[in-house]
Amino acid sequence: MDFELSPEQALIKDSVDRFVADEYGAEQRLASTGGEPGFSRAHWVKFAELGWLGLLAAEDDGGFGGGAVETMIVMEAFGAGLVVEPFIPAVVVAGTLLAAAGGAASAALLADAIAGERIVALAYAEPRSGYDPVSVTTTARVDGGDFIVDGQKVAVPYGCAADTIIVSARTDGAVDSTAGITLLAVDSHAPGVERRDYVTCDERRASQVSFAGVRVPRSAMVGTLGDGFPLLAESLDRGSAGVCAEAVGIMDVLVRSTVDFLKTRVQFGRPIGTFQALQHRAVDMLIQLELGRAIATHAAAAIDDGDPSARSAATAAAKAFIADAGRFVTESAIQLHGAIGITEELPISQYVKRLTAIEHEFGDAGFSLGRYMSAMEQNEAAQGGPAFG
Amino acid sequence: MDFRLTSGDIAFRSEVRVFLAGALSPDVQAKARHAEPISQADRLEWFSKLNERGWMAPSWPEAYGGTGWTPIQRMIFDEECAEAWAPPGISPGVVMLGPVLIAHGSEEQRSYYLPRLLRSDDWWCQGYSEPGSGSDLASLQTRAVRDANGYLVNGQKIWITQADLANMMFCLVRTSDEPKKQEGISFLLIDMTSTGVTVRPIRTLNGEAEICEVFLDDVRIPAGNLVGREGEGWTYATQLLEHERTAVGSIGRSRAALARLRSIMAAPDGSVNKFLPDPVFAQRLARVEIRLRAARFLQLRAVSAASAGERPGRESSLLKIVGSELMQEIAHLTMTANGYAANEKQSPATNGYFDSRKLSIFSGSNEIQRSIVAKRILGL
Questions:
Q1: Is B315 near chain A, with CB under 8 Å?
Q2: Which residue of A has its CA nearest to B305?
Q3: Which residues of chain A are under the pLDDT cut of 50?
Q4: How far is the C-alpha of A373 from the C-alpha of A238, rounded, in Å?
Q5: Which of A60, A179, B126, B297 has the fewest CB atoms within 10 Å distance of its CB?
């Protein structure tokens, strides 16, 4: 049992912290989010040079060979620095898919992605799927040696910058069946692919993408035919744990900023932090932050342990908790700041917006709670009785 | 970072399991599992088994009979005891008085009391609160006046767990009036069989009389029963409260209580099965499980930091608040799972619920804890 960073982990943390401190002021971020594609290509190249784009890839594939704990370390620092580059969608989610899928085509895409020469995004959510990756109506029909893809995807992160979009499509089975889902790497400029890009509430980018008779070669399959769901589930779990860690970094900043404000804001002739009602609310923020940090670590540990059902339960638990904790910390930060809290005048406003967007990413509190409950039920059934780990 | 137990810790866990399998009687385990009252005889028998094994005082230094366990091993031990349904509850003397005697007691006090604590020769209670001094403990008024024959003690103590079973009480008394009320308080050991000591049990919501009021009228205490220096008792006692706090925040007990709840729900005969498909109940249960996962990792981090020799950080201060609220929620869920049966007088689940309310009040209410965290950790 050791919560200390290993020397390698400390190096990653140092380099990410240094990047955020040196190159990630509010002005730089605003310049990135104000133009297209909503982040800095120069930063992305730098990420590649520093080896961060291969954080999760095996060393044989030119990666760092890191796991969920390393992702957590990076994302906590990215959260605290409000880094907008699409690290979770491209590196954690799509990168996991490509690395786990195997095969020459996926390996080639992964190599490009690690080099920073190709941005890959996953398109799984649909207009009627909610947050559920099983609910897939997009179809991929076999036509000779190709697939023909038809359907609509929503909330594709940074679709505007993606060179390749990995699409979950149904090649078999009913709409809510885990079997029959196939993952296909689609060239985002292929005929029949259309995007509507939009800006998100936290100044990031996302797209609705429609596929009308898009012809995709069989070689573009990520993983095997009809068996995409386990890959999809793992990559979404990793993404989910990643945004949990990002949320921890954000909550940490919000708690510290709020406490600083309570110490300096004077009313009734004294700092408002001397009032008990406000003190106790600040302590409750701290409790949510520390429990959030603990459960984000729990999720990372469960992913690195490798058992899929334990991983699924732990990441769902973490996301369910963080969604509520993040909301509590957000709303308390606004409330304790008073009127200035509802403005864009202070840096906390940007943190508030990002944490609010995270509430929904990879499933909100309700969805994640349901996901946790069904994961536990399945574990119980598998173990032949009630259990709680 | 590595969150797995070391092979040494896994071997230790097996050793604990072997011990527990031999030391616990099925009868006592059943009482603990069903949240039925544990008799003092049951408890003393369990403590004698622990003492035989040399495991009675894990928190003490080895030189005085401690175990030399790492904080992680102590956590493993607590979790295994909870899981095996060892009798809940601690020896207040061992957990709370022992460390104070070791740190501040005289050589004479240590050589006399510490072995007796390990053997449970004495049963101790803690005399801190008074009718006018609850959260504002430092305002306490029980007075000890020094004369040629020792101390003459007068006053009243209240909310004392098991004072009716105890033959000894460690106690905070005022020995002088100082501008700062925390000064002038001394730490005194009182023989409960002394003339002038009267104990009145107080019936609590669960119908039991676990807590008492103690009246001290012209009680004569030898001067040798003063621990450390006169006027420094407050410092000793607050150190001691830290020990108590870690015990209260026991996450292992919550895990066991949740396992009990799940076993109630799985009972083939019970009407309680109908609560499983109740979505509202199921969601509350899931939320508690999730918070418990978080709390356990928070505890692991605190324990891991302590193993590395760091001072208890923010985690341990928060664990008392989080741990007590969790236990209370589980107690209410357990009562709820019993349906109408919960309304039967002396239903263990309902008694457990009533009993759980004390967790956010004693050893510093959760409001006091929040004020302490605001001051010490947030610097407000």
A1: yes
A2: A3
A3: 385-389
A4: 19
A5: A60
Chain B segment 60-119 residues within 8 A of A by beta carbon are 72
For B14, the token pair is: 């097996």
Q: Are residues A67 and A79 in the same domain?
A: yes
Region B227-245: what's the mean pLDDT? 82
> What is the rounded CA–CA span in Å between residue A277 and residue A271?
13
User: For A8, which residue in chain B has the nearest alpha carbon?
Assistant: B1
Cα within 13 Å of Cα(B281), Cβ side = 18
Write the DSSP assignment of A15-33 as a string of letters.
HHHHHHHHH--HHHHHHHH
How do the domains of chain B map onto residue ranges?
Answer: 7-89, 124-231, 249-376
Q: How many domains does chain A have?
A: 3
* Residues of A with Cβ-Cβ distance to B10 under 8 angstroms: none
Query: Which of A186, A205, A227 is the endpoint of a domain?
Result: A227
Q: How large is the ipTM? A: 0.94
B12-36 pLDDT tens trace: 999 999 999 999 999 999 998 888 8
Check whether domain B249-376 has CATH 1.20.140.10, yes or no: yes
First to last CA, chain B: 32
pLDDT tens profile A100-135: 998 899 999 999 999 999 999 999 999 999 999 999
Whether residue B244 lies in the annotated active site: yes
* B316-325: pLDDT as tens digits: 778 889 999 9
Residue contact B301–A297, C-beta within 8 A = yes
Q: Is residue A389 part of a domain?
A: no
Distance to chain A for B294, nearest Cα, Å = 4
Q: Are strands B185-191 and B226-227 parallel, antiparallel or unpaired?
A: antiparallel
For the stretch A37-87, pLDDT in tens is 999 999 999 999 999 999 999 988 888 999 999 999 999 999 999 999 999
Are B373 and A314 inside 8 Å of each other by CB? Answer: no
Cβ distance B9 to A1 less than 8 Å, yes or no, reads yes
